[in-house]
Amino acid sequence: MRRISELIIHCTATFADQRVTVADITRWHKQRGWHTIGYHYLIDQAGNIFPGRPENQSGAHCLNHNAHSIGIAYCGGLDANGNPADTRTPAQKAALIRLLTELKHRYPHATIHSHRDFAPKACPCFDATTEYAHL
Ligand SMILES: [Zn+2]
User: Fold this and answer.
1) Number of domains comprising the chain
2) Which residues surround ligand 1, an ion (CB under 5 A)?
3) Whole-model pTM above 0.90?
4) CATH code, domain with 53
5) 115: annotated active-site residue
6) CB of 48 closer than 8 Å to CB of 95
7) How far is the CA of 77 from the centre of ligand 1 (A)?
8) Residue 1 placed within a domain
9) What is the maximum alpha-carbon separation in the chain?
10) Which of the residues 29, 115, 125, 132 is marked catalytic?
């Protein structure tokens, strides 16, 4: 298994009510030349947690951090005008806490970060680093 030292939170940069599946993102990421979806987990608006890339494989979600991290994305991140926004539903917020708690149990030394901590982007459109500092 890889050494996991960071759990990095993303949004999919799609509209709040837009249905986005693992299959959709796999297709988009293959178009970028990656062999499959770049994230390890995807959380839909109903709070369902879907596995993406296997945890034992490096992801493709955060430049210079992929080798030692797990990438988690919630579906959304854009308001109706296409601007970055925290569009997480209550179910997504609960699922994020559930998944992060489980991952912290398995990787107790991993720290939780927003993608934007490492890249000049809005992603994930909220301050995950502060919000999950207590986990
Ligand atoms: Zn991101």
Assistant:
1) 1
2) 10, 115, 123
3) yes
4) 3.40.80.10
5) yes
6) yes
7) 10
8) no
9) 42
10) 115
